[in-house]
């Protein structure tokens, strides 16, 4: 499965443009099958969201749409400064438990 990124009209003073980039998904690891339900909410959000899980020692990684790691933390409360689409990975020890797209819009 591929991911399509389409950006239009990003430079208003020079007219309309269309940019299409098709790429493979950023996640190359297998998500651990878990009975544990993990919730990321709210989504979409205004820059702040929470992760609900019974695991106490988690690692959260957040990537931008280009696959660049922009945040790494252990807190279940996340704050992002810029609007956009992000991808979150939730790890417990060495296992990837959950992966999800996050939308930040103010």
From TrEMBL:
Residues 40-104 form the Secretion system C-terminal sorting domain. InterPro entries: Secre_tail (IPR026444). This is T9SS type A sorting domain-containing protein.
